[in-house]
Amino acid sequence: MADWAKIKFFWKNMLGSDGSILSASSTFPGFDVACISNMMETNMWVAADAAGPHHITYDAGAGNLEEADYLAISGHNLSTTGARVSLQYSSNGEVYEDAFTLFTPGSDRTFVKEFPSPGAYRFWRLAIENATAAPCITICAIGTGTELDYATSSFDPHEEETKASVNISQGGFLAGAHSHYIERSISLRFDDADPALYEKIAEWRALSGLKNCFVMWEPSGHQEEVFLMRPEPRFHNPLKHGGKRRDITLHLTGRKE
Questions:
Q1: DSSP letter, residue 172
Q2: Most distant CA pair in the chain: distance in Å?
Q3: Given its phi and psi angles, is residue 69 left (phi above 0), alpha (psi -120 to 50 degrees) or beta?
Q4: pTM over 0.85
Q5: Domains of the chain by range and CATH?
Q6: Can you list the alpha helix ranges (DSSP code H) found in 87-238?
């Protein structure tokens, strides 16, 4: 069994950056490709039909370059349609190189594909081939991952709570129950955190805010367990040891797929 790896957040997303352009080779009316960049789960991009290859192209804009070492996707049908997926990069928007070999996701659940960064480029392109039906994507993020640290206290990566409407009779009997969704929760503690770790977390909080991000709780042995989660509104990480260290606590929630 491989040693555990440090917890990772994937929140830095070039899609939607200032001055950039995001386009798709085909789009079904009402399901614009811009929907995939806002880290929200309420809209999605849908291709016009199954015929491919389909390309979602990011142009950082003249004079701008972006670097990436991960691709993250949530709310998709790429597995059930048998689609093969790759991320490509280019300096001129004409000749593209693959950041990794085409692959088919193992399921339609959220996933993160990590790869060695090829460097900074103006153009990045998500390529989707061989889909048997029109591919769709709710959230897509392309950028550089953030490695945090090992949690200093135990946590349950599979903690969940069923959100439901429950009716109890006057006699205390269950009269009805309607489940709405299952909420996933993770609570992370990093005690005696050094300034470097706090700066990573503070940057994430300042720039990502209460938006969703992709969380990989154990990148070494559980790469497939990637969760789309959001932080609680409160951000409270007290100083200690004369201001040299902090106790950091993060409470994250998300909808179980």
A1: S
A2: 72
A3: alpha
A4: yes
A5: 8-147 (2.60.120.260), 159-255 (no CATH)
A6: 195-208
